[in-house]
Design brief:
- The protein is mostly helical.
- It has a domain at 171-273.
- The protein is 80% helix and 0% strand.
- The chain has helices at 2-28, 38-42, 68-87, 90-99, 106-135, 140-189, 194-204, 208-221, 226-237, 240-255, 259-316.
- α4 (90-99) crosses α6 (140-189) and α6 (140-189) packs across α7 (194-204).
- It is flat.
- The protein starts with a helix and ends with a helix.
- This is Tight adherence protein C.
């Protein structure tokens, strides 16, 4: 009887949660709560304007199967705005998105945080439910607290994933930088200008840094001068090595100083910096490798050395 009562209580809790979610959606979708947006208010006055060419319009991204994405998009945007008000840090999000090679879109990132938090909440709910079924005991406060903690963990993990993606991309760019700099130095030594050397290197190489240089060339072709376009590269990445690289090219272009020697020196500096970072990382790993030696192997060795003597003394006594 106790197991049957626990099963019925668990079923009632799940049905109550589903009913509460359905009632919340119904109340949120009432006409009194649907405020017209600016687009809805302006649409009657702009209905006769010619439609733009479909060749210039970008394809709308899919928002989930069976139209659920379109249905839940307004609610996800509202929850994302709540997260933005609570957490803040929109400039930091934009900067990390640019460092990760993505478009600066804070709203999309907040929506991703909402989805990650929802998945975390579902995982916490399922885990707590399984534990409750195995113990045949359901604690509603523990269920709610675990779900809220998992939701917060999902939101934090999405933010951490963006930071990790930005750091990994910058590490790849630093690995590519010496080769790119030497290729640019060879092209400049062969008699090409800065723009021609960049075009040649971008055509012959592939990678994160090459993609950023292609973006700089596109900005230059769109009307910006080359120093301004390269300064945008330094602003997007935030790496000191690339900032010095951009400063060297800008000074060489504006003042006519030898560019090849500057690029070779910067490539050598980056290699030396990578070697120093590798040595520092090796030192940290060496300290971590000493931990199992000190806390595992050494106590066992001391035990094997001392235990026979202690046993012999006990036998003599």
């Amino acid at each position: 009887m106790t197991g049957l009562a626990t099963e019925w209580s668990w079923t009632g809790a799940v049905l109550g949660i589903v009913l509460l979610a359905g009632l919340s959606l119904i109340v949120a979708g009432l006409p009194a709560r649907r405020r017209p947006t600016l687009d809805d208010r302006l649409e009657p006055y702009l209905r006769d304007t010619p439609r733009p060419s479909s060749l210039l319009a970008s394809a709308a991204p899919a928002r989930g199967p069976f139209g659920f994405g379109e249905l839940l998009a307004p609610y996800v945007a509202r929850v994302g705005s709540v997260i933005e008000r609570v957490l803040g840090g929109a400039p930091s999000v934009v900067r990390r998105q640019l460092r990760a090679g993505r478009a600066a879109d804070v709203e999309r990132f907040r929506a991703e945080q909402v989805l990650w938090g929802t998945l975390g909440g579902l995982a916490g709910l399922v885990t707590t439910g399984l534990v409750a079924v195995s113990r045949q005991r359901l604690s509603v406060p523990v269920l709610v607290l675990t779900t809220l903690i998992c939701v917060g963990l999902g939101v934090v993990l999405r933010d951490n994933a963006l930071s990790v993606s930005a750091r990994r991309r910058e590490a790849r760019m630093l690995n590519e930088f010496p080769t790119i700099a030497e290729l640019l130095a060879l092209a400049v030594s062969a008699g090409e200008g800065a723009t021609g050397a960049l075009e040649r290197v971008c055509r012959l190489s592939h990678g994160e840094l090459s993609g950023e240089l292609r973006r700089c060339l596109a900005d230059a072709r769109a009307g910006a001068n080359l120093p301004t376009a390269l300064q945008g590269l330094a602003d997007r990445t935030g790496l000191m090595s690339l900032s010095r690289f951009v400063d060297g090219i800008v000074v060489a272009v504006e003042r006519g100083t030898p560019l090849a020697e500057v690029l070779r020196a910067q490539a050598q500096d980056v290699r030396e910096e990578g070697r120093r970072s590798l040595m520092a990382e090796g030192g940290r790993k060496e300290i971590l490798m000493m931990m199992p030696v000190v806390f595992l192997i050494l106590p066992v060795t001391v035990l094997f050395a001392v235990y026979p003597g202690v046993t012999f003394l006990e036998l003599r006594l």
